[in-house]
Amino acid sequence: MDPIFSLDEVSHNTSQVLEDCLDIFQSPAHESYNHKNTVYLGNTSFNQHPDIQYFQKVKQKNHFTYHKSKVQSQKSIEKIQSKSTVFDPYDLNMLLGRLRSFNSLNWQVPNSPQLNELKCARNGWKCASFARNIKNHLICTNCHQQLILRFSNNNISNDTSPFDIDFLSGKEYDDELNSKLIEKYMVQIETTGHSTECSWRNFETPLDGVYYPRHYLSATNTFLITQYLKNLKSLVDNSLILQEHYDQIFKSSSLQSPEFINISNQWLLARYYKLDKENVSACLQHIPVWFYEIAAQGWSLNAQRYANDVILVMSCGMCNSRVFLNTVTPASNLNTLQALTPVKYPLHHEPHDELTEFDQPLGPQFDPVHDHKPFCSHVHDPHLHDYFFSLILGSINNIGINGEYINNDSTIIDRPTTTKRKKSFTMNDGLERLNKLRKLYLIED
């Protein structure tokens, strides 16, 4: 069948672009090309040249490093988001876990009674440490939204200036600006910082009954005894190094009750040293009294690593307050200490901090009573220590086989009226009465 038209006839009335396309269509196939000017180089390949191989290795190495640094932060965020979270605003252990994520390396805000670590943790936020130069990086544990709190910092020192640095640096303006920023951040922490579907927009962990324990409850007794024994064990396991450096600091103790120490030892042996009671019991007879006192006040011994140096740290399990004990200790001398977040850079010693023969040594730097943070339960409740002291004295029959707390309603309460009310009022009765009261207020007209 003859074609209706030929390409030659069409090419007379086409533009230059179409003519170029026509030439391509009419050209022979790619396989039929004969490169007459091709220079024959033999079997030598450029890929075998040493210089080419060297630069190829450099390219591959830098290529991987580049992409790794580019997506490192994104992977960290995705890893956090991929973790399954359980929303429970009334869980004390989860609250303390969020509170422990705040430290001096990643959290620095102006002094404010409203905005603190506890406020953020109560609303579901934890503090992240993605970079050394970024502080106050908050991440919601439920919706994974992020907040970075930035403030105006005044870093000018007036030690060497005769002028009014507060006026020249605008310190008053900075304080006013920071107070307004705190108001905005408080709204974001409570509601707007979370996603619209996040449950933390409608809930906030209550302090009373969760962070501040209620007396005479079985859950409260279990938690207080567990924390006390955990703190005491960290001190007992490292008693030699503590007594060597700090026996003179802690030698004065207000605890004068051999019965309290005896019952504490029974708790400790039953929970942690069940298989070696005889040997450990003999060692406990030489433990100083102040060990039991600072353990009851919430302090435990931990280790903070700075490069190759290990610093002893007294830390509170309730407010996450940390007090550095000025001793650099080899890691081999520490026995089963909980390791805090390690720091890669070394600990720097300032020249003017070193003592000379004319200097007097500093006094005690650790105060187990006043070194808690202002919101700590050990500071907030002035009767907590008296209650815990009575709890231990009356808990000889509550020690379980494995050191667990057994509730047998034998808690000592001195007041007869309270004892009578306690016997006639259980937790189930209280919950039932609470539900009845809620129904009265929730009845719709």
From TrEMBL:
It comes from the Eukaryota. One of its GO terms (cellular component) is nucleus. It is found in: Nucleus. The keyword rRNA-binding does not apply. The keyword Iron does not apply. Transmembrane segments: none annotated. InterPro entries: NuBaID_N. Residues 89-240 form the C3HC-type domain. One of its GO terms (molecular function) is zinc ion binding. Keywords: Nucleus. This is C3HC-type domain-containing protein. It comes from Spathaspora passalidarum (strain NRRL Y-27907 / 11-Y1).
